[in-house]
User: What shape does this take?
Amino acid sequence: ARRGSELKVMSGVETKAPGFFTKGLRDRTSDKRGFDVERMVFKDDELSYALGKDGATRKKLELASGAILQYVGHVAYIGGVRSERTRCRDFINWLLQQRRGSVTIADISDRDDVQEVRIPESCKGWVTGNRGSELRRMEVETGTYMFMALDAKGNERLLIFSAKAGNRHGGGGRLHAERLVEEMIKEKKEGDAESRRRCSRSRSHSDSRRGSGR
Assistant: This one.
């Protein structure tokens, strides 16, 4: 907590005096298993994307990764134990890849921080929402990081990342988010089925009217 507060102060100072803390800094990684702080240096066009409106994207990645993530100028400081730092780096790299197109994560079998959901093609737009709005809503509600990614065969599926597993009944975490997605899929399928029934009844009524008019 103390290191997180220190990084917030550094961020504020850097905003008022660019380069005060970050001039000449480069990326820094650490193999230390316990707590340490790493750095990632952003390019100009990457910072605003990684920050998000009112810092929403940074906060999302921080919460889902379990790490401390603070931006000091164009430098991302990532604090935590090794697993948290690695997870946060992965999240940032995947986020930046999304700017250029589809992200491929071929194998997730060795990860313990993700749920995989296969979404029917007819439900994808409903689940993701306009420009990802529904995914963003569920991320905020559950403290997760969610996006569509390709597997090794090039098939798209939804990945739900978070250091917190949680449970399906609420309170945040991957399992909570998975339940919300499954509910949206069910809702879309039921809505489609009802639309088909209405269309069928409408056609039957129309046919019967034409038949009685002969």
Observations:
- Helices lie at 2-16, 44-51, 56-65, 82-98, 124-128, 133-142, 174-212.
- Residues 174-212 form the longest helix (39 residues).
- Residues 73 and 206 are 66 Å apart (CA to CA).
- The two ends are 82 Å apart (CA to CA).
